[in-house]
UniProtKB/TrEMBL annotation:
<keyword id="KW-0378">Hydrolase</keyword>
<comment type="pathway">
    <text>Carbohydrate biosynthesis; gluconeogenesis.</text>
</comment>
<keyword id="KW-0464">Manganese</keyword>
<comment type="similarity">
    <text>Belongs to the FBPase class 3 family.</text>
</comment>
<dbReference type="InterPro" id="IPR029052">
    <property type="entry name" value="Metallo-depent_PP-like"/>
</dbReference>
<dbReference type="Pfam" id="PF06874">
    <property type="entry name" value="FBPase_2"/>
</dbReference>
<keyword id="KW-0119">Carbohydrate metabolism</keyword>
<dbReference type="InterPro" id="IPR009164">
    <property type="entry name" value="FBPtase_class3"/>
</dbReference>
<protein>
    <recommendedName>
        <fullName>Fructose-1,6-bisphosphatase class 3</fullName>
        <ecNumber>3.1.3.11</ecNumber>
    </recommendedName>
</protein>
Amino acid sequence: MKDEKYLELLAEKYPTEQAVCREIINLKAILGLPKGTEHFMSDLHGEYEAFCHILNNCSGVIREKVDLLFEETLSDIDREEICTLIYYPVEKLEMMKKESRNNEEWYRVILGELIEIARLLSSKYTRSKVRKAMPDEYAYILDELIHVQKDEDDNQVAYHQNIIDTLLELDSADAFIEVLAALIKRLAVDHLHIVGDIFDRGPCADRIMDLLMNYHSLDIEWGNHDILWMGAAAGSEACIATVIRNNLKYHNIRILENSYGISLRDLTLFAEKLYPDTEPMEAALKAISVLLFKLEGQVILRNPDYQMTDKLLLHQVNVQNHTVCIAGTDYEICEETFPTVSFDPSNLEVSYELTAEEKQIMEGLRMAFVGSVRLRQHMDFLYQKGSMYRIFNGNLLFHGCVPLDESGNLEGVVFHQKRYRGRDYLDYAERIARRAWSKDATQKELDFMWYLWCGRKSPLSGRNIKTFERTYVKDESTWHEASNPYYQYYEQEKICNMILHEFNLYSDRSHIINGHTPVRTSRGEHPVRANGRLMVIDGGFCKSYHKTTGIAGYTLIFNSHGIRIKSHQPFQSVYAALTENKDIESRSELVETERERLMVRNTDTGKKILEDIKGLKMLLQAYREGTME
Ligand SMILES: O=P(O)(O)OC[C@H]1O[C@](O)(COP(=O)(O)O)[C@@H](O)[C@@H]1O
Ligand SMILES: [Mn+2]
């Protein structure tokens, strides 16, 4: 019965025997093509320019192709110039013009070279897929130029020459170069994975989101910073206060005020009154910090399941002595006054109540976050393309961790009297995160978004976050944020295999791909751990980390030949890239080479195609036996 319905539906799409045969032939051909290139990046942290650059140079893949084709025939400088033109065609063309270097001869040569690169890259795909990647206006010409047919008299060469002549004659060469550059980049990477943390620290996460929303094929694994913004947009006040605090701290109010239309005016005016001798932004940071500790205090008090009452520190402040009592020890604090806090030792909850004015300010901010159309669009996209983890072509991708206990077993976490661990726990977290985004989200679901940002056993955070201590306590030994045991155990192949098995991955080709923690190369750390089972690919885009890492960071490329880690030097600027053709220096390191080239048949898509072929063969049989009209 089920089969019949399925065949009927299939027959609507393939109404004749010939149509079925054509599709089977087509699908079988696809199975025999090399697997497309996957590109992995993580921890973009609002660094739009550096991200753009790595996206443009496809972690060095473009350069490899240019070298492959022209190493013997072109100088280093010429090859670098081709790369820059592909990365930044508009800007580079403008510069060429200023320097009057764009004569006809140059156009002829460069167009020929770009076509050759596009041809090389398109050889991995079906002609139809390549055509779909082209803009309609140019599809015909591009298709002609890229697909060469051998003939006796070189007719084709003359024909191609003719097309190029006409492009030049019509003054369309620039536009065509832009289209070619876009096509080359589009073909160099088949699918992009963003392993979390698009938001915070750097200034332009909104522009990164715009770019991702136009990208041809990608998925996102939510990072702790992403989930924080998602929680804020959903209306969690603890998340809102944290977002504002993070962005005030990094002087990034542009993203809030200009990009998302969230005004901090009321907060700033309020803060200036409270802290008259403090610089306005500094005062706003103070005011929002107190709001944050009150709001997260309320979340902790409402949710005993979180087991985070040791984080209730605001009521432990002794304003007269300028100290706070943490686990029985008094520590000196750097804040003089807490004008909005009513300290009442006999009633803990009083310290965490918002004043009437604070309530009003929070309500204004909540409405601004929930009501921002652009923010909603960006968060919708994070929900659409994103998830807590993803299994893709046999690899397991997540930002933070799968929480483990002290002995290296999957850590059990109890919510509403039910215990979750491993994959179940991550699935549970994802369900609640999705419910938090629905119109009838409950306070508990919103609270959970805050928990995912910094909760004791949050898979996205994986550490014991010390925001209060880092804000107020002078003794920096209290600032240390202990990591979940996962971050010790993930050095062991056995443990990584245990985690992979938990997600039903048993192949020795499976890996964990992890973001979240910068790889401190200068301290001898390496992104590949556990005998190759796990890779940490923090892209190191975040400038404030370059000191500790020694290099910028790592990205990963997985193509038909295997997996390669790419290490990158810090990105200087688009200007340097243009004037000096300065690429980010990217070194490639082979992690795993495939014995045989991986084909589409070995991928997730391949499995789906094989299923489709099975169905089509059933339909073909039905047509032939006459059981289907
Ligand atoms: O996911 P990331 O980038 O490590 O960010 C989370 C970390 O940021 C912090 O909030 C501190 O950030 P800053 O040092 O930038 O203020 C830590 O408490 C927390 O561990
Ligand atoms: Mn992170």
